[in-house]
Amino acid sequence: MENFFALLSRMRYIKRWALMRSSQEENIMEHSQQVAVFTHALCAIENAYFGGKLNVEYAVMLALYHETSEVITGDLPTPIKYYNGKIKDAYKEIERTACEKVIAMLPEELKPAFSPYVLPQGESEEYRFMKYADKLSAYAKCLEEIKCGNAEFSSAKKAIEKELKSYKSQAVDYFIKHFLPGFSMTLDELNQAE
């Protein structure tokens, strides 16, 4: 029996932001979809406005599968995951082992079709843009929570904002300027915006 797809479907049960009180819970399946959409946007922006030559489809597929390990490991809170270099390195190895276990659930003939996305080799430009999108997704979550009056996300917002600026990416800056303001708006405001 190959359980790859059944296991991935369980992404909807893995909650993000475990240490934070959220007005709206988010799971890693929802998060992965948003990261895929944001990755698509960032790559399209980079290619259209800033002379990029990114493989958009590859980047989006990386985003779609970027949380695969968490169906085995769960979502380890960021303060723990990045507490120090030893923990960060050990957790990267745990994530890789978890991804290998998930890939092993596929028939041999299908492994080459999924492995490049679940177990990317090296950090390509597309991978970097996917990581930017991952961070933008976290930032959008902070904006939405703060919009709902949840001050719990204020510190996270400031830290993520600082990190986003440190990327010095024109595509990220463009996305923040043109697309992120809507995440602080109500539905009525979004519908009335011109």
What is the mean pLDDT?
Answer: 93
What's the CATH C level? Mainly Alpha
Span of the ends, CA to CA: 52 Å
Query: How many strands?
Result: 0
User: What is the gyration radius calculated from CA atoms?
Assistant: 17 Å
**What is the CATH architecture term?**
Orthogonal Bundle
In N-to-C order, the SSE pattern is HHHHHHHHHHH
> What is the CATH superfamily classification?
Hypothetical protein af1432
Count of DSSP-assigned helices: 11
Number of domains: 1
User: Biggest β-sheet: count, sense, barrel?
Assistant: none
Classify the secondary structure makeup into a structural class.
Answer: mainly alpha
The outline comes out as globular
Q: In CATH terms, what is the fold-level topology? A: Hypothetical protein af1432
User: Which stretches of 5+ consecutive residues score pLDDT under 50?
Assistant: none
Brief overview, please?
The chain has 194 residues and is an all-alpha fold. It has a single domain, classed as Hypothetical protein af1432 (Orthogonal Bundle).
Could you walk me through the main structural features you see in this protein, from its secondary elements to its overall organization?
The protein has helices at 4-8, 28-49, 56-64, 70-73, 78-81, 85-103, 111-118, 125-147, 154-166, 170-178, 187-192. The chain starts with a helix and ends with a helix. Helix content is 63%, strand content 0%. It has a single domain, classed as Hypothetical protein af1432 (Orthogonal Bundle). It is globular, with a radius of gyration of 17 Å. The protein has 194 residues and is mainly α.
